[in-house]
Amino acid sequence: MKTKRILITLPLNYGLNEMVFESSLTRKQISISNPELTELSICEFCMLSRERLLAVKGMTPETVAAIEHLLTEYSLRFGMSGEELEAYLKQYYEENPREKEFYDLCDKMCNEIPVFDEKNFREKLGRELNGNPLGGNKLNDLGWQRYHTVREAYLRQPLFLRLFGSRKARIRKAIEDASVIHDMFCRLVTESCIDTERWYFEHREMERTKE
Prior knowledge:
Number of helices: 11
Shape: elongated
Helix content: 55-70%
Distance between the termini: 50 Å
Mean pLDDT: 80
Number of strands: 0
Largest sheet: none
Number of domains: 2
C-alpha cells in the first residue's frame, strides 16, 4: 500500500482539510482558528511540539490529539526537525514529479516577472497626501483644499456652538472635523491609486513579456 503524503509547503488549514478528506475524522475535530497558527504552513506547524500547541489559546487536548492522529496517517508528527521535513518534501516530489515541475515553473515566473511593490507605493503616496503643502509637492494643492475644509467646518458650525463655544474650542472642533474628512479622502485616493498603478504595472510587464 502506497504511503500517503501531503505537500508540506501548503497553508496549514488548507493542508489539514486536504488530509481530513480521506480520514475518519471531521473538520470540526481538527479545526484551528488561532491566527498564530493559521498563518503557518504544514511544515512550520510540524516543527512545533505538542506542549507548545497545548499552550496556544483555543487548542484543546482533544483537538491536538485529533490533529496528531491525522498527521500520523501522512507520516508526519509534532516536533519534526528541519532535516526530517526537507527529506519528507524531497520524497514527496520524487513521488509526484509533475507537481515539482509545476512549482519550479511558478518560482521561475515569480523571479523573472517583477512584482508590484504596493508597500513602498503606499508609503510614498501617504507622504505626499499628508505632507506640508509648502514643501514643494502639493499634490493638486491638497493643503489648500484642507485649509478650506477647516474654514467651512468652522463657519458652518451649529448655532449653539457659535453662541456658547469659545473661539479656541470652535477652531479645535473644526480641525477635528476636517481631519476626519481628510483621512477618509486620503484612504479613498490611496486605494484608487494603488489599484490603478497595479493595473498599469501588470499590463506594462505583460507587454514586455510579449516583446
